Amino acid sequence: MATLALLVVFPFLMAYAAASDLLTMTIPNRLCAALVVTFAGLAAGSGLGWPEVASHLGAGGVTLLATFALFAFGLIGGGDAKLAAATALWLGFDHLADYLLVASAAGGVLTLGLLRLRTHPLPGFASAWPWALHLHDRRTGVPYGIALAAAALVVCPAASLWRLALPA
Description:
The protein is mostly helical. The protein has one domain. Helices cover about 70% and strands about 0% of the residues. It is a multi-pass membrane protein. It comes from Methylobacterium crusticola. Its main location: membrane.
C-alpha cells in the first residue's frame, strides 16, 4: 500500500494538479482531498508513529495558515493554497523549506516565462485552444499549481516518508 501511494498515487495527483491548473486555471478540491485521504491511509497502514504523524499534520497546518494568508491578500489562488498544504502534509517539516524554496524558484521561472510569452502573438494554430487563449491573456494569473507540483516531485524522494517505499 505504501509503495503504491508513494510511487503512483502521489505523482499522479501532482501531475493532475499541474495539468488541471494549466488547462483550467483551477485545482479541484477533490484532488486536494484525495491527497489528504491517501496520506491518512498511508499513515495508518504503514506504521508511522504518532510523533511522525503529528509532524506531518503540523507541516500541513502551518502551510495552510501561511498560504491562506497569501490567498487573503490576493497573492495566490485558493487552489494553490490547498495544494501547497496538502503537499506539505506528505513532506513534513524535514523537507518543507526545500519544497517552498524549489516551488518559489520554479514559480519565478514559470512567471517570467509566461510574461515573456505573453509579449508575443499567440501562434495561429493555438488560437483554437480555449485554454491557450486564456493563458495568453495578460489579465490572467499564473497557473502556480504547475510550480507547486513540480517542486513536490523534485523534493519528495528525499523526504523521510519515501523511505517506506524506497529502502536504502
